Amino acid sequence: MVLSTSPAPPDPPAAPGSPAGSTASATSTGSDLADLIGVLAMRHHEEYESAAARHQLTGIQARVLALLARRPLPMRRLAERLKCEPSNITGLVDRLEARGMVRRRADPADRRVKLVVVTDEGRDAAEQVRSAADFTRAPLAGLSEEDRAALRELLRRVLG
Questions:
Q1: Which domains, and CATH codes, for the chain?
Q2: Who's near 123: CB < 8 A, 6+ residues apart?
């Protein structure tokens, strides 16, 4: 299935006598929004994967580094955040550790738990991928500061 990357054409005007805010119109608007959000997510994912590849990382490796750049995390928490099995995280961390981008250390609060910590090299790589993934820069540059602030607030409300 191929998704169009351009927005769907606007709905035709409401039929005479039908309320402007009809359920059909609200449903159509909801579908249009869902489609546009889907296209946005797909474009972001493609750009992020491409930016990661330019830095010899897979998209998931770049996401691990981005999460760890915020703070060290237990491997189980990484798996939860990335919506994958803990056994997958072990392999990811092994490969990143072999490249000197992360290291494991005991959690000072519970020595049985292993934290994954990003190294300076891993933090630099995460920042380079983030900077290279410029998908949002060009479209957002066309919005006023007020529009960007409104969009940020709407997205925060939608995401909870």
A1: 38-135 (1.10.10.10)
A2: 65, 69
